[in-house]
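Dear colleague,

Thank you for sharing your sequence with our group. We've completed the structure prediction you requested, and as agreed, I am returning the results in plain text so they can be pasted directly into your records. Please verify that the sequence below matches your submission; if there's any discrepancy, let me know and we will rerun it promptly.
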Amino acid sequence: EDKSDLYTTLFEMYLHTASGKTDADREVWETKAKRLIEGKDIPIDTSNVLLLSELENFRDGTILVREQQGLRFDIFRSYTSAQDTAGAIKALRKYGPEEQQLYPAALAYFTSSPRILEEAGDELNAVLRRIDEDGLMAPLQVIQTLSANGVATMGMVKKYLSTTIERERQEIANNRRLIASFRTDTAQKQRDLTDLVTQPVVFQATRCSACGGALDLPTVHFLCRHSYHQRCLNQSDDNDDPECPICAPANATVKAIRKAQDESADRHDMFLDALARSSDGFETVSEWFGRGVMSVPTATE
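Please find the predicted C-alpha cells below.
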C-alpha cells in the first residue's frame, strides 16, 4: 500500500511538472508518467491515475488505463466527446476489428456536423463498407442515422445504397427461384401421392433389387418400384408391414426430422431463445413457422 501511494504521488508530480513546461520538456515528463502506467511490476492505483489524468488533461494516461481494462468503447467515446476526429479514427482502426460496435458509433459521429464530416474524409466510406460487409446495421438503420443531422448527402452514400439495393434484388430473385422450385416439387409429390392412391401400379421388374437374380415366387413388390425375393427380405407370411431396404434409410431420416419438428413445435422457450440470438428475426420466425411452432392444434372429438 505504501508503494502504491508513493508511485501515485510520483505520477502526480510528473504530471504537475509537465504542466509547467514547454512542448519538448512537457513530452519528457509525460513520457515518465506513461512509463509508470505501463510498468508491469509497478503498483499504482488505476482510479487515482484516471482522476489525476483528467485533472491535468493528460489524455494518454486515461487511454492507457482504459485500454488495460478493456474499455475500448470508452476510449473511442472520449475522443468523440472532445471532437478529436483524428484520435477517433485512430481508435477506430485500432479497436474496431475487435469491438465492432464502434462502427455504428463512428457513423453517427462522422455525420454529426459538417466540420467533423470534412475531417473524416474517406473514412465515412470505409465505415459504411465495414457495416455493410459485417451486417452490423440494417440499411434502414443506416439511413436513419445519416438523416438524423442532415449532414450527409445522397452523393456520399450513393455507392453504399446502390450496392445494398443490388444485393437485395439479387437475394429476392434467388428466393423467388427457390420458391418456384419448391412449388414445382410439391406439386409433383402431390400428383405422385394422388396416383398412388387412385391409380393401379404395374410392376415390371424382372430382377431382385437385393441379389440381382431373376424374380420368382414368392415376390414382394413395393410402391417405390423396388421388387425382391421374399427370402432376400427375410420376409415371413405373417409380417404384413415390410419395408423396402433401399428406401428405408431415407424414410427413417424423414421420420426423424418430422419427429424433431413435432417435438420442437411445443418448445416455445427454444423459439424465443433462437429469436433473441438471431441477427435476422424474420428468417428465424419463418424457419420456426415451418416447424409448426405457430400451428393451431386440430380439435378432436
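Summary note from our side: DSSP finds 14 helices and two strands in the chain.

Kind regards,
the structure core
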